[in-house]
Amino acid sequence: MALTLPRRLRRPLTWLARLLPLAGIAGGVAALQHVRAVALLPVVVGITAWTVANYVVNVLRWRSISGRDLSLGWYTRVFAEGELLGLLTPQHAGALWWRARQLSRTGADRAGVAAELTADRLCSAVTVVAALLVGGAALPGSARSAAFVVVAAAAAVVVLTRHRWLHRLPTLEPRRAARWVGYSLLFQAGYVAFVLYAVSAVGLVVPAGSLLGVLAAAQVASVLPGVHGAGPKEGVLAGGLMTLGASQGAALAVVGLLVGLVWVPALLLGGGGLVARAVGGVRMRRRVVPVAPVALSPLPALSPLPALAA
Fold it and tell me: pTM score > 0.85 for this model?
């Protein structure tokens, strides 16, 4: 049964959905105000690690899970376009919506698309748990307990809803599952490198082991609802850096740098794809030339046939 919102709530929720991305952008801009001086080389290395991890490794994982007869270029373009939309929507929902829409246009059924995207998110969640197990030892007891509670709640939701999507997945072979998790681990490694180089770029020095614990908590916080630039993940990361001895300005500078740098490949790759798609659509519409109706002259009257002799 579909959930129908009361009419009096539709307009406020619509405006809330429009304003939340602006809140994320404003939060990122406010954090960027704390960036005083940045070393260029760590920034270049960090954004390169993020771009490879997010736009190469994650695309390969999605294509491996999908198993559809579509080119790698198609998956890369749709993923990049979705990432840009995800940055503008709460909980990165725009990315999933765009990927589902483009898959549906290829003829895929809705249930299969939902199962495919769910499996992709689950592979990412497995590595979040792994990051928590590895770096959680460096967290305070209360933070570690809260992180495990969030993970347990998310796992409960997955288990309780498994009857809706699990049977839609292709036959799960151990080798394929290991490949998917391996892609997710590579992504996490790229993300850790991205954060480490961002910390180095602002001149902040923190213990690597403790920083992994903070990153683990921030990854768990990303499960909670929020928008890019002003969500629980950014708050946990800034607070964790402050507990490691960083000043408030330095912690916000790291967060602002991370939030801002993510936009660079999203705009170049995703924005470029959306612009090319829009330009292609305009050209296709211009090629459709309306054909003027042709006036047909009336047929000449036929003379009656002569009577045949009996």
Answer: no
